[in-house]
Amino acid sequence: MTVYRNDYQPFPYHIPTVALQFDLDPEATRVTSLLSVTRRDGVAAHTPLRLDAEDLEFVSVSLNGQPCAPDRFVVDDTSLTVLDLPSSCEIEIVCITQPAQNTSLMGLYVSGHSLFTQCEAEGFRRITYFADRPDVMSTYSVTLRANRSQYPVLLSNGNLVEETNLDDGRHECKWHDPFPKPCYLFALVAGEFDLRQQQTYTRSGKAVTLQIYSDPGTFDRTEWAMQSLERSVRWDESRFGLELDLDRFMIVAARDFNMGAMENKGLNIFNAAYVLADPETATDANYQAIEAVIGHEYFHNWTGNRVTCRDWFQLSLKEGLTVFRDQEFTADMLAEGLDETSAASARAVKRIDDVIMLRAAQFPEDAGPMAHPIRPESFEEISNFYTATVYEKGAEVIRMMHTLLGEQTFQSGMQEYFRRHDGQAVTCDDYVSSLEWALQAEHPNRNLDVFRRWYSQAGTPHVNVELSHGPEDATLTLSQRCEMVGVEKSTGFAKQPFHIPLRIGAIGADGSKRYLSVHAEGEQAVQTGESVLLELTQTQQSWRISGLIKNDILSLNRGFTAPIEIAYEYSNEQLAALAQHDPDAWARWEAMQMLYTRYLLAQTQAADTTQNDTPAIANLLALVIDVCNATLGDSKLDQAYITRLLSLPSDKYLLQQMQPMNPLSLARAKHQLETTLGMNLADQLMECVAQSPVTQQFDASPEAAGKRALRNLALGWLNLANVEQAKSLATHHYDSANNMTDRLGALRALLLSPVRDDRVEAALAHFYDRFQNDPLVVDKWFAIQASAPGTGLKTVSQLLNHPAFVFRNPNRLRALVFQFCSNNPLGFHAPDGSGYRFWAEQVTRIDQSNPEVAARLARMLDHWAHHIEPLKSHMQAALKSVADTPDISGNTREIVTKALTL
Ligand code: B3K
Ligand code: ZN
């Protein structure tokens, strides 16, 4: 069933208080819920109260203490409707849910020996009959009862009010959450855990207890998570002026979890992968992700929980904003304590990582069958809309407003937002209006009218840039267009220009700096500086620029001020100059990306049309090698940044620029380029590896992590190129590693080597042997093999039958099945279509137990129609086979039907 944003209606009743009692038992948990219900003003007297349900066993309903007469209620599989209510009453409902049978991991479920809940978006209806929508906010009191030895810890939101031992071996804990909340923020946890806790004080002096609960035996691995939480608390106070409003803030790690983590009020539940870390078992990337996700969920306490969404179409209200906040948090943490130049470079690295992710996940989404604005107009299944668009593009939209307003005005808009809406369920438009208020307090003539279109229009805008030199100054003309995408195509939607903030600068052909003076045509106001911010709000606009001479090179979208594609005719030499001299670290990286892209696309095209290498391609390759060489030798650059400069664009981004898409020839071209770079730069790469030996004491600083990243890239290229000694170096690196980043880097390098000998097998076997009892590391072992270039379906099938493969665990599925389908082009896109048939089998199989995870996997063939034959036909057949499977879930059905029809 399709739900439309425009059909929103408020719920006819208020439910100000909810008292829940749980008799917890994995086989059958009895849930008693007592709701206070009041009819909203203006609602007709006989309006029925319809409550949502899914997979519940109904027991009873009573009204003001009396069992409800059979003709006063209707119950079916998806609802309980109570008729003829007085304007105000109490309703008590009893039902039963079966956590051990719940493989969807939505609602109340078993993971390991513990019980967990996941309610966002619509999981609370799997716990009890309720108005499962974010605009119904209630104060919760929760009583949990369970066997004391099996479930010594019983947690829910808010404050622990009372703990009592019952005389039948059970105990009881009562919790009260003083903050009214929508039911998607409800949580409970029951089990046995290690607890790390610490007291801290908020800025205003209130004492709060921070707690992290994790599986018995993992206490030593929660230190980083605790530090990350403490830093999150401090950062939200210092940068946003937002304090923790609770007496205790809990995080619990679960082994089985559908996504990263969940921001339940005061009781965040996390995928263990985003909590547990020590140098032996977690990579530098894991450390950074843990800090970011802990930050993200913590920041939701204000942006999401204190102010929440009116309806699920407004999801980006909390997600885009909170991603923006966690991105800034990470950037501030990376830059902390550094001098100005290093801080700028550290921030650029974070920005680059975010752009890589946006281009790999969101740009393709915005051009495919699931394209939607950051505030969608319709959906069939809301869980399919926790997308890169809502999250990452949503964050870009917030960032553009931050760029347009500046930090101070943006923060004053944030304050206004909380002043207006604390405790409410609101819309994206309410948020933009608060920022607009702050903007107009300073610039009464400005507004965000055009800007708001980012919320209603999908697609990635393309901006064309033209520069013409006149006798005195130059004219820069920007024009924008954005294709119709997704459902827009069938609705005759009239697309309008976007408000695009574009930071630009320029350098001389010799790399020298330029100072620009720019004004919009027909306007007086002049901007001057090394960088200026242009605002494109119409289809086409021009600016006059002085300070530029004939051969100067434009530097565009510095810092990636807008999530757009730019078209400008650079020569290869101009790109090479930018790639070595652009003072803006982001733009310098971008120039390098463009060079790689040019080369790879030319190379794949030549291969697809069976041309031999042309001189033009050979020249371009020589230029790429030169620039990489210079980059490696640039001692002013830090190593994390060099690693980004040397990394090729993602397949997903490159494929978007290929017509038709040929993932096989692309994979070969990338392989060939990295091999060539490995051969040509072997000496410098060897030096990178030698310069920072692995035997020293482990150092967790970002600087040391940067060194590890570059060293691992070097090891990889050297092994790809099969350079003499490369494999021994990698083997040595593996054996002497004192941390997971080095160990995994070495193992990956070994798997890249064209010759898979005993050393490779020995390292793989050793890795499993050593870490077999640690599920998060076993995931890495599966993932690294699933994505290794030599891995085909045969190996994947063996791995599926490995005793350590656990079908019900989403992390394990992501490690093996998802990795193979998304990160192993040569294996997955086998020309006989076997990879796609495997995909279809897995989607339908997973769908029977966990539709949310299956629907994620189903997205992998979104772009089938743009592929080269015979891949295209094979993909289409695989999609059809999923669509034709009887009883496929609504989640998966939405994805495959849209892929086949849009
Ligand atoms: N809000 C949750 C996501 C829930 C997804 C439900 N399908 C995590 C987050 O964004 O912080
Ligand atoms: Zn979030």
From TrEMBL:
<dbReference type="InterPro" id="IPR035414">
    <property type="entry name" value="Peptidase_M1_pepN_Ig-like"/>
</dbReference>
<dbReference type="Pfam" id="PF17900">
    <property type="entry name" value="Peptidase_M1_N"/>
</dbReference>
<feature type="domain" description="Peptidase M1 alanyl aminopeptidase Ig-like fold">
    <location>
        <begin position="459"/>
        <end position="568"/>
    </location>
</feature>
<keyword id="KW-0378">Hydrolase</keyword>
<dbReference type="InterPro" id="IPR001930">
    <property type="entry name" value="Peptidase_M1"/>
</dbReference>
<keyword id="KW-0479">Metal-binding</keyword>
<dbReference type="InterPro" id="IPR027268">
    <property type="entry name" value="Peptidase_M4/M1_CTD_sf"/>
</dbReference>
<keyword id="KW-0862">Zinc</keyword>
<keyword id="KW-0645">Protease</keyword>
<dbReference type="Pfam" id="PF11940">
    <property type="entry name" value="DUF3458"/>
</dbReference>
<keyword id="KW-0031">Aminopeptidase</keyword>
<feature type="domain" description="Peptidase M1 alanyl aminopeptidase C-terminal">
    <location>
        <begin position="573"/>
        <end position="900"/>
    </location>
</feature>
<dbReference type="InterPro" id="IPR037144">
    <property type="entry name" value="Peptidase_M1_pepN_C_sf"/>
</dbReference>
<keyword id="KW-0482">Metalloprotease</keyword>
<dbReference type="InterPro" id="IPR042097">
    <property type="entry name" value="Aminopeptidase_N-like_N_sf"/>
</dbReference>
<feature type="domain" description="Peptidase M1 membrane alanine aminopeptidase">
    <location>
        <begin position="224"/>
        <end position="440"/>
    </location>
</feature>
<dbReference type="InterPro" id="IPR045357">
    <property type="entry name" value="Aminopeptidase_N-like_N"/>
</dbReference>
<dbReference type="InterPro" id="IPR024601">
    <property type="entry name" value="Peptidase_M1_pepN_C"/>
</dbReference>
<protein>
    <recommendedName>
        <fullName>Aminopeptidase N</fullName>
        <ecNumber>3.4.11.2</ecNumber>
    </recommendedName>
</protein>
<dbReference type="Pfam" id="PF01433">
    <property type="entry name" value="Peptidase_M1"/>
</dbReference>
<feature type="domain" description="Aminopeptidase N-like N-terminal">
    <location>
        <begin position="42"/>
        <end position="185"/>
    </location>
</feature>
<dbReference type="GO" id="GO:0004177">
    <property type="term" value="F:aminopeptidase activity"/>
</dbReference>
<dbReference type="Pfam" id="PF17432">
    <property type="entry name" value="DUF3458_C"/>
</dbReference>
<comment type="similarity">
    <text>Belongs to the peptidase M1 family.</text>
</comment>
<dbReference type="InterPro" id="IPR012779">
    <property type="entry name" value="Peptidase_M1_pepN"/>
</dbReference>
<dbReference type="InterPro" id="IPR038438">
    <property type="entry name" value="PepN_Ig-like_sf"/>
</dbReference>
<dbReference type="InterPro" id="IPR014782">
    <property type="entry name" value="Peptidase_M1_dom"/>
</dbReference>
